[in-house]
Amino acid sequence: MPILHLVVLAIVQGITEFFPISSSAHLILTPKILGWTDQGPLIDLAVHVGTLVAVILFFRAEMWRMTKGALVLLRGRYIDDAKLFLQLSLTSVPAFAAGPLIYYFGGNEMMRSVELIGWTTLIFGVLLYFADQYGKRLLRVENVTYLHAVLIGLAQALALVPGVSRSGSTMTAARFLGMERAEAARFSFLMSIPVTMAAGGLGVLEIYKSGRAELQMDAVISGVVAFVTALFAISVLMRWLRSSSFTPFVVYRVLLAAGLLIWTYF
């Protein structure tokens, strides 16, 4: 792919993966709007790996505590640091179950529809608004229960449909359950690690096994740019949510949805 295409797609992924506006939708829409050839799922996975490394680096303190907790669990003991590890494992189960079903029934191509993205962008944007406006702000990540983790994990599984937004759906669920805005974002970002690690790992393996040097170089370039962009995006969003709401993202979603539905029907 041309370098310009790779850089633009990586920047789009780095920003939209963590802003609640759906990275998968934007990766599908970008080549359609710009008249480019679709980059295909392997480049999509490569840029997701870049954002995965960014979130691991940004939340390295939490990652260290979870790793320590997991190692203690392997020895048959339970400590507080193991709780978040177990909860994030629980949140991943619905997505791990739903992903293969969508692939088996041939839903991947159907879900690249602009019409579908328009409706999901609108509906889940409105849900985010109501969750943010009327949800209480009482809970931090440390207060999350195992039931909370399962419910937010179900919301994450919905985000396999482009336009829903993985970060958007999980933050919406977390806000409905009473989490503070910045804490909802922190839990959502940490939740992305197991699912992205599994999908990204398969993508990296497939890219390596392809033996295509051009594809491998494209994957490296796009992954690095996505990593840098994502670090910036996480930092900006975490600062924003300490004192502001999700409303600007809701407005963007509604405007984008309106444009997509007008494009589709008219």
Q: How does this structure look, described?
A:
The model has no long low-confidence stretch (mean pLDDT 92). The chain has one domain. The protein is mainly alpha-helical. The protein has 12 helices and no strands. 79% of the residues lie in helices and 0% in strands. α5 (80-104) crosses α10 and α10 (181-210) runs antiparallel to α11 (213-241). The two termini are 32 Å apart. The radius of gyration is 18 Å and the shape is globular.
Straight-line N-to-C gap = 32 Å
Which stretches are poorly predicted, pLDDT < 50 over at least 5 residues? none
Query: So how many helices?
Result: 12
Proportion of strand residues? under 5%
Compute the CA-based radius of gyration: 18 Å
Order of helices and strands: HHHHHHHHHHHH
Main sheet record? none
| Average residue pLDDT | 92
> Helix- and strand-based class?
mainly alpha
Q: Tally of extended strands?
A: 0
Helical fraction equals over 70%
Query: Which shape, going by the Cα principal axes?
Result: globular
Q: Tell me the domain tally.
A: 1
